Amino acid sequence: MSDSLEKRTETTGVVKSAARTLAVLEVFQNWKRPASAREIARTLEMPRSSANALLASLVTLGYLWFEPKNATYFPTLKVGLLGEWLIGSIRRDRALGSILQEVSAATGETVSIAMRAGFDMQFITIFPSTFPIALNIEEGALAPLFESAVGIAWIAGQDIGEIEDLVAAHNKRTGIKPVALADMKKRISDVGTKGAAVAYDKVLPDTGAIGLAYPRPVQGQTVVIGVAGPEDRIRRSEKQIIALIRRLVRQTLG
Asked: Contact 203/145 with Cβ under 8 angstroms?
């Protein structure tokens, strides 16, 4: 286990075995290839014996398969199916899909649906940009909750008490830039003024993004509509894009 993960379990009360299990799955998500027990143990700074025992348990439970010839592990489809029902529900929401299609056609920019995943926002659906120069985002990619436009849009819809708790929990984590509650309140206020969250040069340099929370929960989850691209294009079209999304949401949901 890495030092940061070790400290995080101590300061947040996270069960160490749960943190290690998810860390193993995240290794495969990042590497997208089979890996040996030695590689995983080294990457997560876990004792080799602990890594072997955890991997063997995940094989027994059906979440990993083991290839004896190369002594490597790889996730089974059972891992991918864990959240498929939720992602499928979001993608099957016809009203939401219709909005994204229209925004994509009207702007030509990268249009997305994102939902919260811990201290990140995860992109569930992507409509790629039609411009030669664009911001390319892969489905499943993560953006920081407190920095991205989609993250700020999600936060802006929460009660102030929950926001304070989120900021406090975030700031207890090690190896991350702390968030000032006053700055977060200012950004939330800006969301109310502009009608959407806007971020420039926050996640990637020379990029801009707009985020607007979809007002109807999907399977009890708040999802966020995002539009992103090169900073200059988004700045020039910011007001028009926000007005477009808000108009389509009103027309679609009534």
From this structure: no
What count of other Cβ atoms lies within 10 Å of the Cβ of residue 230?
17
To 5 degrees, how large is the angle CA 155–CA 159–CA 160?
Answer: 90
Q: What is the DSSP letter of 74?
A: E
Which domains does the chain carry? 3-81 (1.10.10.10), 84-253 (3.30.450.40)
pTM: 0.71
- Amino acid at position 28, single letter: F
3-state secondary structure of 199: strand
Where are the extended beta strands (E) located within the chain?
35-36, 64-67, 72-75, 110-117, 120-127, 142-144, 197-200, 207-213, 223-230
Tell me the pLDDT tens digit for each residue of 65-108.
999 888 999 988 788 767 666 666 666 778 888 899 999 999 99
Helix (H, G, I), strand (E, B) or coil at 218: strand
